């Protein structure tokens, strides 16, 4: 019998082979189908990255235009989805409402029962398109307003941002939002992607796999961290406030959201660096005093956490103030993470179905034995 190895939290365990992405921590590179994710964020669009992840290669200009039109054409959401969302308790967490919507979308896809990579790609593009529309309208529908229908005359990110805020972003804002979507699009095997692959490995459909991923992403140790970071910044108020806020929590041995990462551990998440640069540029260009204060607070807390705990920020840390200066409601930060990640999640489901082996690990049993029921 093979040696029994137990690694709590599966730390360092290789759980699958993949040609989609890999975190090369030594070289500080997030490899996505051979490209550096940061190069993609600087030089390409989110729609390009959707093509790269789901179709397997970067589209050229013409192919990008076709894919963008296809996504925008598929972005309309069945009216029943809005009716169902309206029936849910308004206090229900935005990620739980999103989870319900993603699950229900499967019922409107005629191909849902056909589980193979080709159908996964087809359904997956629908999910990428429709998730954006659902996420953008979560607040509006909860407040009893009519959802904004997608406008195919805008670009994919311009339409997404417009549906969220109800106003047209400047070209610089749309570009920043697009970069944030790319930063969130794919990241190897985080908890939500692993959850999706575990579900897909039973030959369950892509909607089921992505519904599980929404549930996973809600947690504050994962996607929920970006909203917690923003709550911390607003509660702390200013630079002195954030220093005090963090010191108090560290003294109580609490975790500070937006810091630390299972894989990067004691290094900066390259995506956090990207969004920090993006935030710095955006608030300087706009002469945005509040944005500049948030940036100074973030930098102060970053120095403090490094000095006190040797910890660095992760993506969620700088994504929070970026979303805030773009005027995005805080309860949509984690749903936007999911909408951006649909591209990576779909790619993983396609790959799982193409080279499937059921996930079924074992346990180290620590309970009693030999008890008698009577
Ligand atoms: N604040 C304070 N201490 C921390 C933090 C933190 N954010 N993160 C790790 N530590 C400490 C932890 O207390 C432990 O210390 P000790 O050895 O003295 O007990 C040590 O660092 C190792 O922590 P761990 O829990 O064994 O590390 P992990 O790999 O299980 O946890 C993590 C990774 C991301 C769950 C954790 O760093 C964390 O809770 N961070 C805050 C939540 C967060 O920002 N999540 C977003 C992650 S990245 C993007 C995403 O996935 O959404």
From TrEMBL:
<dbReference type="GO" id="GO:0006099">
    <property type="term" value="P:tricarboxylic acid cycle"/>
</dbReference>
<dbReference type="Pfam" id="PF00285">
    <property type="entry name" value="Citrate_synt"/>
</dbReference>
<dbReference type="InterPro" id="IPR019810">
    <property type="entry name" value="Citrate_synthase_AS"/>
</dbReference>
<dbReference type="InterPro" id="IPR024176">
    <property type="entry name" value="Citrate_synthase_bac-typ"/>
</dbReference>
<dbReference type="GO" id="GO:0005829">
    <property type="term" value="C:cytosol"/>
</dbReference>
<dbReference type="InterPro" id="IPR002020">
    <property type="entry name" value="Citrate_synthase"/>
</dbReference>
<comment type="similarity">
    <text>Belongs to the citrate synthase family.</text>
</comment>
<dbReference type="InterPro" id="IPR016142">
    <property type="entry name" value="Citrate_synth-like_lrg_a-sub"/>
</dbReference>
<keyword id="KW-0808">Transferase</keyword>
<dbReference type="InterPro" id="IPR036969">
    <property type="entry name" value="Citrate_synthase_sf"/>
</dbReference>
<dbReference type="GO" id="GO:0036440">
    <property type="term" value="F:citrate synthase activity"/>
</dbReference>
<dbReference type="InterPro" id="IPR016143">
    <property type="entry name" value="Citrate_synth-like_sm_a-sub"/>
</dbReference>
<dbReference type="GO" id="GO:0005975">
    <property type="term" value="P:carbohydrate metabolic process"/>
</dbReference>
<feature type="active site">
    <location>
        <position position="261"/>
    </location>
</feature>
<protein>
    <recommendedName>
        <fullName>Citrate synthase</fullName>
    </recommendedName>
</protein>
<comment type="pathway">
    <text>Carbohydrate metabolism; tricarboxylic acid cycle; isocitrate from oxaloacetate: step 1/2.</text>
</comment>
<feature type="active site">
    <location>
        <position position="316"/>
    </location>
</feature>
């Amino acid at each position: 019998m093979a040696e029994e190895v137990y690694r709590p939290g599966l730390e360092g365990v290789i759980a699958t082979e993949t040609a989609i992405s890999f975190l090369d921590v030594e070289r500080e590179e997030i490899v996505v189908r051979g490209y550096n994710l940061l190069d993609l964020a600087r030089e390409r669009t989110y729609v390009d990255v959707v093509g790269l992840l789901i179709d397997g290669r970067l589209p050229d200009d013409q192919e990008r235009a076709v894919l963008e039109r296809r996504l925008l054409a598929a972005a309309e959401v069945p009216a029943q989805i809005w009716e169902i969302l309206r029936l849910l308790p308004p206090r229900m967490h935005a990620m739980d409402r999103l989870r319900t919507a993603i699950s229900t979308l499967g019922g409107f896809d005629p191909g849902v029962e056909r589980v193979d990579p080709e159908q996964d790609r087809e359904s997956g593009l629908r999910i990428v398109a429709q998730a954006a529309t659902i996420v953008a309208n979560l607040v509006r529908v909860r407040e009893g307003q009519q959802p904004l229908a997608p406008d195919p005359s805008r670009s994919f990110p311009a339409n997404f941002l417009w549906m969220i805020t109800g106003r047209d972003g400047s070209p610089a804002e749309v570009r920043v939002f697009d970069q944030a979507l790319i930063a969130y699009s794919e990241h190897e095997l985080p908890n939500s992607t692993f959850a999706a692959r575990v579900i897909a490995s039973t030959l369950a459909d892509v909607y089921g796999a992505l519904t599980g991923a929404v549930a996973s992403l809600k947690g504050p140790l994962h996607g929920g961290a970006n909203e917690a970071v923003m709550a911390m910044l607003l509660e702390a108020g200013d630079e002195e406030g954030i220093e005090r806020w963090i010191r108090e929590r560290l003294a109580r041995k609490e975790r500070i959201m937006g810091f630390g990462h299972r894989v990067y551990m004691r290094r900066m998440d390259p995506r956090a660096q990207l969004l920090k640069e993006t935030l710095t540029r955006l608030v300087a260009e706009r002469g945005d005093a509040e944005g500049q204060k948030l940036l100074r607070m973030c930098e102060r807390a970053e120095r403090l956490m490094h000095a006190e705990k040797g910890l660095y920020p992760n993506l969620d840390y700088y994504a929070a103030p970026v979303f805030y200066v773009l005027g995005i409601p805080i309860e949509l930060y984690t749903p936007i993470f999911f909408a951006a990640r649909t591209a990576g999640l779909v790619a993983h489901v396609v790959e799982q179905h193409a080279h499937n082996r059921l996930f079924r690990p074992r346990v180290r049993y620590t309970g009693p034995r030999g008890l008698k029921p009577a």
